[in-house]
Amino acid sequence: MACKDTAGGARRRCLEWEAQQRRECRNWRTEQTRRCDDWETTSEQRCTQSHTEQERACDRWETERTQECSDWIVIFRWLCLAWTWVTTTVCRAWSWVTKTVCDVWTWVSTTVCRVWTLVTTLVCTLWVIVTTLVCRTWVFVLDSWCLFYCSLRRLFAPTEFSQLKSECIYGWTSAYRAELDTENCRLNITLRIRLVADEGVSAADLTAGQAIWEPAIEAAWSGQFPLRMTDGSCTCEQYTVNVDVQFVNSNEHHTVTVHPGSGREDMTNWYVNTIGEAAAHEAGHMFGNVDEYADSNCSGRTVTSDGSIMENHITGAVLVRHYASFANWLSNRTCCTYQAS
Asked: Per residue in 220-246, pLDDT tens?
């Protein structure tokens, strides 16, 4: 169904959006975690390097001062060495303090970085949840609309189809039975006609007429053009039309009075001598098609000259446009779009 395709497309876009956003959230977390780890490693290296350099400076100070003290006389040498020890101890204590401060700063800043990563990842995840929820709510609305829309369309495609038709001063009812055979992708059209004998017409006349009219109508209207799907996703890409004419005594779609001899036929009045092509033309009205020949009573009519059965029943044939009623019924019934082609 076309609307199902729309809802299905929206559903796919929701899934794609969710997957993409989740990937972006994961990528952000991975990248941000890497940055935090890099910062921690770099900071620790800097702290260690700074501490090492400071320790070396203290060692150099101690070595240099000790050498200087060795040149002093004994009493002052001990004072010099004591001073060297004190200053070296202070130097090393300061090195330890700066190393500790550096390590603490590394831990604090790395912790802040990781907390920020956690918070932003959480916000990203919540954003994905909210937007996906909104998207899926929209899909639900589309699905609901599709269900309503298709149900509404099916009201215009009952199995026992009937539709009022009018043209200029003429009016009639198009009626037939339509059934889907999805296994064989066939649209079965049943046309039930009740023949009423006018005075002077015998049962044998009706039987003889049926033998002519039934195959002529079925041959003219069956399988002329495939009904191809142009929008939607239904089981059958195309349907074949099969017309079955049944002459019945009750539950008819149309009643035709059969008159003796010959005369000008219309949809409800035939003659014993009516040929099969004329019956097929009148069946075209029963299927909802209008006349296409010039008529002084219908100046606004579209007159054709392309070999149409509705313009000339003797030499004309069923054309693509004459399957419009079948295509419309099929489109409404399946909620896909079909056209004769």
From this structure: 999 999 999 998 888 899 999 999 999
70 is written with which tokens? 């060795």
Contact yes or no for 84/65 (Cβ under 8 A)? yes
pLDDT per position as a tens digit, 169-224: 999 999 999 999 999 999 999 999 999 999 999 999 999 999 999 999 999 999 99
DSSP state of 314: T
So what's the pLDDT on residue 333?
94
Q: Tally Cβ neighbours within 10 Å of residue 165.
A: 17
Give me the residue label for tokens 């069956």. 222
Enter the tokens of residue 282.
Answer: 């009148």
Q: Give the residue ranges of DSSP H helices in the chain.
A: 2-69, 74-155, 203-221, 276-286, 324-334
Contact 252, 192 (CB under 8 A): yes
How many Å apart are CA 23 and CA 26, to the nearest integer? 5
Helix axis angle for 324-334 and 74-155, nearest 10°, is 130
Tokens of 197: 């004998």
